[in-house]
Amino acid sequence: MRTWQPTEEADPVGTPAFCRDCLHDAGEAPRCPHCGSPRLARHAELDTLHIAHIDCDAFYAAVEKRDDPALRDVPVIIGGGKRGVVSTACYLARVKGVRSAMPMFKALALCPEATVVKPNMAKYVAVGRQIRERMLSLTPLVEPLSIDEAFLDLAGTQRLHGESPARALARLARSIEAEIGVTISVGLAPNKFLAKIASDLDKPRGFAVIGSKEAVAFLAPRSVGAIWGVGKATQERLAREGYRLIADLQAADETALARRFGAEGLRLARLARGIDERRVSPERETKSVSTETTFDVDISDFRTLEQELYALSRKLSDRLKAAGHAGRTVTLKLKTADFQSITRARSLEDPTRLAHRIFDHARELLAKEANGRRFRLIGVGVSELADPALADPADLVDLEGARRGKAELALDDLRARFGKDIIDRGILLDAPGRRQTPQPHRNAPDELAAREAASSTPTSSTPPGAAPRRK
C-alpha cells in the first residue's frame, strides 16, 4: 500500500501552504520561514475545501494527563476493573497494542506498566462542551458525532473570519491545545466521508487534506473496511463476492452493485469513488440512550442483578431528564460469563423517562433470563425517543404507578438539593458495596419524609410478577 504525505505535494511551486504553528504563509520551503516549524499544511485545494472532521486525540486520556502532571509521560488506560473494557488509551499505551473496547485484562497484559484511571464522564462532557463552543464560533454548521468529534461546514465563513477555512481550522486547533490543554486532529476534504478518513491519517495533532482530484486514486488501494458503515460482517460478505479493496468496487459497474446489494450497493459504489452528498447537519438526532456496567465477578443471583439494574435505571432516567428525552422502547442487555450477548426489548404504550417504569419493565425481561446463568455485564437503554411532554401521562387505572411517579420526582428534587446520595429507594439498602448513608444535618430532609419516599420500592429475592397494566 502506498504511503500518502498529507503536507507535501509532488509540485510545491505555486501550491497554497501555511505554517500550522504560526499561521504564516510557508511558500515552497520545507519548513516555515518565520518560525522554523516543519508542521506545514500544503495542498493544491487547501484554500477551496470547507468540509472538516475534527477528532480529539485520545480524548479521555488527554484530559486526565492534563489534570495530573504525574501521568504526562506514562501509559494511561481509561477503563474500569480487570473485567471491564478499555474506554480509550493514550498513545504510549497504543504503541504496546492497547485499543479501545479491548478487555482490560488483555490490555494490562500488553502494557502492565500502564496507569488505569476510571472514567470521569462529567469532566469529559464539560471539556467536550468547551471544545464544541469553539467549533460553533467558527460556524453554526457543527454536527456532533460524540463528545469529542464533529463534522463542520465552513462554507461562506472566509469573509467573516478574514481567512480560509483551512487556516481558521488550524487556528482553532492551536487555541484548543493552548487554552483547553488537549489536542485535536483535523481532516479537510470536499465531503464528510473523505474528511472522516483524513482526520485519522496524521494523528495525533494532525492536519490532513484529501482533495477531490486525488480521491479515487487515494481510496483505491485501501480495504473496503475503510468505507463508512462497512463492518466486519459486510466486509466478509464483500470479500466472498470478490471485493476486497476499494479499487475492486471502483472497477465494478454501479448498476451491477445496486442489483447485487440493493441500495447498499449503490452507496458503496459512490463512496468508493469519493462521492458523498450528505450535508453537515447541526441537528443530529439522538436515537437512543443507554448505560451498562461490567461486574468484577460473574453474578447469577437475581437479587444482586436487580439491584444493579435499578441503579442503572436511575442513572439512565437522570440522563433522559437532563437531556429532555423520553423513550417508548426499553431494552435490556446482558452478557453471559462465556461472552454470549443477550438483548431483549419491550415497547411501551406511552414514552417514559421515569426510573421506576424503566426498571419495572427491564426487571421483567431480566426475570426471563436469570435462570441460574452467570452474567458478566448488564445494561439498560431506551429508544424510539419522543417529546418528554408526552411521557408518563396520568392514568386513572394505574393509580399506584401515578403515585410512584410523583414520589420519584420528589426524590429527584431532594437529590438535586442535597446530593445524589442523600436518599435511596429500599431496593438498594442491601446492595453489595453500598456506602453507609451520611448522617443528617440541619439542611437535610427530615427522617420521616425520607423513609416514606424511599419505601416506594419493595425488596425481594424472587423474580417479579407482571408490571402494572399500563405499559
TrEMBL record:
InterPro entries: DNA/RNA_pol_sf (IPR043502), DNA_pol_Y-fam_lit_finger_sf (IPR036775), DNA_pol_Y-fam_little_finger (IPR017961), DNA_polymerase-Y (IPR050116), DNApol_IV (IPR022880), Rev_trsase/Diguanyl_cyclase (IPR043128), UmuC (IPR001126)
Cofactor binding note: Binds 2 magnesium ions per subunit.
Catalytic reaction list: DNA(n) + a 2'-deoxyribonucleoside 5'-triphosphate = DNA(n+1) + diphosphate
Annotated spans, Disordered: 429-471
Site feature Substrate discrimination, where: Y60
PANTHER family: DNA POLYMERASE KAPPA, DNA REPAIR POLYMERASE UMUC / TRANSFERASE FAMILY MEMBER
Family matches, as HAMAP family: DNApol_IV
Cellular component annotations (GO), alphabetically ordered: cytosol
Keyword terms: Cytoplasm, DNA damage, DNA repair, DNA replication, DNA-binding, DNA-directed DNA polymerase, Magnesium, Metal-binding, Mutator protein, Nucleotidyltransferase, Transferase
Source organism of this protein record: Ancylobacter novellus
Binding site for Mg(2+): D55, D148
Molecular function GO terms recorded: damaged DNA binding; DNA-directed DNA polymerase activity; magnesium ion binding
Subcellular localization: Cytoplasm
All residue ranges annotated as the UmuC domain in the record: 51-231
UniProt-listed NCBIfam families: PRK02406.1 (NF002677), PRK02794.1 (NF002751)
Cofactor: Mg(2+)
Listed name of the protein: DNA polymerase IV
Cytoplasm listed as a keyword: yes
KW Hydrolase (keyword) present: no
